[in-house]
């Protein structure tokens, strides 16, 4: 168990390319932190820097009170679950679980006990003597988790561990990971590009874009008060509508804003509504429908009941207090 | 799957004919001839040929020269294989660690493979030549008298190096490909699991290379036993005192130099048996035992 602190952490590759800049995160003991962002935003690189698989060129990473910048991965007291599981194909499940303990000189009896415990928790007991190739994707995933928990490390690092699973299994495993982390109370950093996974798992989210932290906060904070147009467009499904303020000049209190954000579910049809939308396409979801179109020159989406009447032009009104205003140049939130 | 059916019965035969004819003329027919001849004895002037049953074989196993050739072959084959594979693996590991210049080194390291064995033999003959070669000269400076013309051990070292040299390239390529197909995440996982570089190599990388290693083991054994003829012929000619006279070279010496066709044919048949056994082992085990 330990806290993890990232202090002005940055990474510049030898060629001069900057991958990560100025990241500051304080992770409390036992906290579940999710790094989320589009592909190429540097979230995996950041995780690998915590793991010790990538060098840190700027700033400091501390696990507990110890600066680990120059500490080897094996001495950082962390365990990592890889996207492709990285199970040792020539070893049985039991050997896979025991490998890390054996390397650390744990006694045979102790190894056996801990492997049995991990197998019990993850329900992989029946497969202990199989080779990884004889397991399904979900089972491999469990073994990878098992390899992390037998070591009882200070922190778990997850690098998109669910992205190789099918959609249904992903939802189940997501829940299991959450429960497991709650039960063990181990500090965790989890990387994903899936904002839904991020929202459901995280105690706190870290939204990354182009190697920089856009926002850190609880899922609800980030959802309710996105710090920038990037976060606004990334978190939430369907995505928040971002409309140039000049397209809707008559909305009260928006004079100094450049962009106005409104969530699709905060818009309703109303004959005298102040916002005009041109409808382009409709998606039926069963319980509701998504209406896509344009407000001014910007693409926009509205969520409507599936029995609402449709026309090519809609007048829309918004729930009071649901407007998000963003600065015209920086794109940052204005409160 | 859609299958195209040809009704013409002769077209498939016609298409296969070139390969079948080559196989028949250059492999099957000579093999049959060798088996037939191994049961015959010809007199010194080639006037009479008589059937002698397995006399040629029993004579071989009573001949100390032939049994000596067996042990020479064993030492030679194992040495060539071990030297080749150890060096190839070391070089593959070294190149695998490179990032930028990997292609250049790989290309350069393949070159020896393009040199014909006979030419390689000549090159090493010059390098190792006791009177004009550079290597014995250098060794003399440090007080070692390396003379393969008189010393059986030196001769063996010489032909092992000359035979292994060009073969290292071939094994190197396979080892490099094998190393590169080990996912980086496995080594990273092992690094996090507390295994240092040496332990990682022996517990993760090497076991994952075992299919490649086994394949190369068989291929190199076959090479050392059968394809090193040109190297021996260009250098020691089996000497001194039979010390580098491997089985395959003895077949040639007894048959074409000594004109003892019956014995030579019997030796060929024994070699054929060895190849068959090696091939069977490879097919049986390479799939089952070593795959993980």
TrEMBL record, chain A:
The keyword Oxidoreductase does not apply. Keywords: ATP-binding, Cell inner membrane, Cell membrane, Membrane, Nucleotide-binding, Sugar transport, Translocase, Transport. SMART domains: AAA. GO terms for cellular component: ATP-binding cassette (ABC) transporter complex, substrate-binding subunit-containing. GO terms for biological process: carbohydrate transport; glycerol-3-phosphate transmembrane transport; glycerophosphodiester transmembrane transport. One of its GO terms (molecular function) is ABC-type transporter activity. Transmembrane segments: none annotated. CDD domains: ABC_MalK_N. Belongs to the ABC transporter superfamily. This is Sn-glycerol-3-phosphate import ATP-binding protein UgpC. It comes from Paracoccus amoyensis. The lineage of its organism: Bacteria, Pseudomonadati, Pseudomonadota, Alphaproteobacteria, Rhodobacterales.
From TrEMBL, chain B:
It is found in: Cell inner membrane; Cell membrane. One of its GO terms (biological process) is transmembrane transport. The keyword Glycosyltransferase does not apply. The complex is composed of two ATP-binding proteins (UgpC), two transmembrane proteins (UgpA and UgpE) and a solute-binding protein (UgpB). Residues 70-282 form the ABC transmembrane type-1 domain. This is sn-glycerol-3-phosphate transport system permease protein UgpA. InterPro entries: MetI-like, MetI-like_sf, UgpAE/MalFG_permease. It comes from Paracoccus amoyensis. SUPFAM superfamilies: MetI-like. It comes from the Bacteria.
